[in-house]
Amino acid sequence: MFHFSVELTVGEQDVNYRNHASVNKYLVFFNKARIAYLAALGYDFDSETINPGLIVAESHCYYKKELGLGAVITVKCRIREINQKSIVMEFF
């Protein structure tokens, strides 16, 4: 179950000459959702001494649907797993 979501609009910077978003832009959408989710949980991205930056060590994206210019999408995310030095997040 996904308890957090963010609504995004596919903009001109997200599409190619045929007005389709490429798969690498999906990772940008996921990153925007990740930042919004962690901020909602209280993560302070501006405090370098309290919260060091987060590194995305690995990511996977399965292309399931074509997105075009102006499409409004809802990106859902959740934390699937918390480890000692890492977290695993999922997006839909």
UniProtKB/TrEMBL annotation:
Any one Pfam family match given in the protein's UniProt record, by short name: 4HBT_2
Keyword Manganese appears in the UniProt entry: no
Keyword Ribosomal protein tagged: no
InterPro entries the UniProt entry points to: 4-hydroxybenzoyl-CoA_TE, HotDog_dom_sf
Keyword vocabulary terms for this entry: Hydrolase
GO molecular function, one term: fatty acyl-CoA hydrolase activity
Family matches, as PANTHER family: 4-HYDROXYBENZOYL-COA THIOESTERASE FAMILY MEMBER, NOVEL THIOESTERASE SUPERFAMILY DOMAIN AND SAPOSIN A-TYPE DOMAIN CONTAINING PROTEIN (0610012H03RIK)
Family: Belongs to the 4-hydroxybenzoyl-CoA thioesterase family.
Protein name (database record): Thioesterase domain-containing protein
Source species: Desulfosarcina ovata subsp. ovata
